[in-house]
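Hi V.,

You were right to ask for the full record rather than a summary. Here it is.
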Amino acid sequence: MYVILLGPPGAGKGTQAVQTAERTGLLHLSTGDMFRENLRNGTELGNLAKTYMDQGELVPDDVTIRMLLERIGRDDARAGCLFDGFPRTVEQAKALDEALSEQGNEIAVTILIDVSNEEITRRLGGRVSCATCGSVFHEIFNPPNAGSPCCGTVKMIQRDDDKPEAIANRLQVYADQTEPLVDYYNQTGKLAAVNGEQSPQAVGEDLLAALQAVSS
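Predicted structure:
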């Protein structure tokens, strides 16, 4: 079974992907990890990708998909895969569908972890880190202890990525890329959405239920 997991930055998608893969036996396939493995091992596809990256260009979709097909052909992917980080565009989705179809496979379901922009802003905007040791905290969910939060310093800083303007930009980029992708999978009848504003445990259970609905 091949599954795609979508969600905005701050939705907890990565954590849910790892936990869902562990509970189902699906291979968690992160495109970031896949690229790093190919680059580290100096594979033909890794070297090809590097030529584009060294020039500051995006790696073409066909190279990424060839990496994906090689990876899902290994023994540890026999039960299926949970795609995390790909596809990001409708063009990539169509190319992936075509490549899987040539192997006699298809995407079983695409699951969207749905979280409002307001909640994402609250989650990301509250992240701070220790100016001395770099320990990460959250002003709401994991506040630093007064006086001695980690290494003894009391100075907390906020990354540029977690400031309001940057968060708004990330959400706009996500919307521009993903809303057409959500529409695409909705039209194919292969979209399921779960409420990402619940507890992580509840989100995980809803993800499992969505998978069971298509595998039964």
